[in-house]
Amino acid sequence: MVHVYHGEGKGKTTAAMGLAVRSAGCGNRVVIVQFLKGSQTGELSILQRIPEIRVLRNKEDLGFVWTMSEEEKERTKCMHNDNLKKAMELVAEGNCDLLVLDELSAAYRRGLIEKDMVQRLLETRTEQLEIVITGRNPDALFIEHADYITEMRKERHPYEKGIPARRGVEF
After folding, report:
1. Quick one: which H or E segment has residue 2?
2. How much is the pTM?
3. What per-residue confidence (pLDDT) applies to 63?
């Protein structure tokens, strides 16, 4: 089935990582592709210790999209396409039961991934493959294919009081 975790609230990636751990704990092979993320985060150090989980992400952190030059956006798109191709190969080989596409919504919306490749993945997936898509403002394509849709809605966040993101909680 396809899960979409979206919205303005905190918890989209956290929910996806929780499902990845649960799935790996049941012996499933998990592939996590992180889009628009290149810096070290708290979940990486523990996920990389779980043999059933493989994380694919950008080799370099080029910052936020709105600060990237056109060249940096193109490099980011190439890294994203390469990571998704690797994930799709693992799926085709039967080496992936759960595929987490973290922040795919933003990469897709901003044209930082080959849209045809994403559409092909969703339209040709096998019944055995579980897919999770996270990010704000999911495309109609994702909603159309979704079996689960969960919206994270922010009611209050410490950032509004000037408290910056905290290691181990927000990243």
Report:
1. strand 2-6
2. 0.93
3. 81
